[in-house]
């Protein structure tokens, strides 16, 4: 089944573009093994549901430990590359909901490629978009319901 994705254009210097760029910067920091740059855009009450683990990480200590293990796993898997595209971004005052599609790929020795769905809830603090919650999941391949 072919999936049709309708990506949106972001107006330059808009809140939508600024919020999206935060998400993009997180994956760039992940790609280059810089978890401190990821943590710099996370609010103290940040939580994450990662695409590869069932646990909801709900505290900064849990998230920091998760980042360490996640970086080790990525180094073992192989070089990471990604293409991130916005699908829908809603701004509600100082809150934003950012929905994206990500084509992710890890090169050998343990290659993997996947289409992923990302949902981020963000809050604007002192003029900067910060991450409140991040959820990623693997996009299903086709329709699975009876």
Please name the defining characteristics of this protein.
6-stranded mixed beta sheet, alpha+beta, globular, 146 residues, 3 helices, Nuclear Transport Factor 2, Chain: A
**Terminal Cα separation, in Å?**
15 Å
Number of domains: 1
Question: What is the gyration radius calculated from CA atoms?
Answer: 15 Å
Strand order of the largest sheet: 2-1-6-5-4-3
Number of helices: 3
Q: Give a count of the beta strands, DSSP E runs of length 2 or more.
A: 6
Q: Kindly state the mean pLDDT as a whole number?
A: 91
Task: Summarize the main sheet.
Answer: 6 strands, mixed
Strand pairing plus helix content: what structural class? alpha+beta
**Low-confidence blocks of residues:** none
Provide the β-strand percentage band.
35-45%
CATH class: Alpha Beta
Tell me what the CATH architecture is: Roll
Bin the helical content: 25-40%
Form type: globular
Order of helices and strands: HHEEHEEEE
> What is the name of the CATH topology?
Nuclear Transport Factor 2, Chain: A
Brief characterization of the structure:
The protein is α+β, with helices and mostly antiparallel strands. The protein has helices at 15-31, 35-39, 60-77, and strands at 42-49, 56-57, 80-92, 95-106, 112-125, 128-138. It has one domain: Nuclear Transport Factor 2, Chain: A (Roll), CATH 3.10.450.
Outline the structure in words:
With 146 residues, the chain is of the alpha+beta class. The chain has a single domain (15-138), classed as Roll (Nuclear Transport Factor 2, Chain: A), CATH 3.10.450.50. Helix content is 27%, strand content 41%. The protein has three helices and six strands, in the order H-H-E-E-H-E-E-E-E. The protein has helices at residues 15-31, 35-39, 60-77, and strands at 42-49, 56-57, 80-92, 95-106, 112-125, 128-138. It has a six-stranded mixed β-sheet, with helices on one face. Strand 4 and strand 5 (112-125) form a beta hairpin. The protein is globular. It starts with 14 loop residues before the first helix and ends in an 8-residue tail after the last strand.
């Amino acid at each position: 089944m072919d999936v049709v994705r309708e990506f949106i254009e972001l107006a330059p210097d808009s809140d939508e573009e600024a919020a999206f760029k935060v998400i993009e910067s997180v994956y760039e920091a992940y790609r280059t093994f810089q978890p401190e740059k990821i943590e710099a855009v996370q609010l103290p009450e940040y939580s994450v549901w990662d695409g590869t683990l069932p646990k909801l990480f709900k505290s900064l200590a849990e998230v920091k430990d998760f980042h360490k293990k996640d970086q080790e796993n990525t180094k073992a898997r192989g070089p990471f590359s990604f293409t991130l595209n916005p699908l829908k971004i809603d701004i509600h005052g100082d809150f934003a909901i950012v929905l994206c599609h990500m084509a992710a790929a890890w090169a050998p020795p343990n290659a993997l490629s996947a289409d992923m769905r990302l949902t981020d809830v963000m809050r604007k603090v002192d003029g900067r978009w910060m991450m409140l919650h991040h959820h990623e999941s693997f996009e299903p391949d086709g329709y699975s319901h009876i």
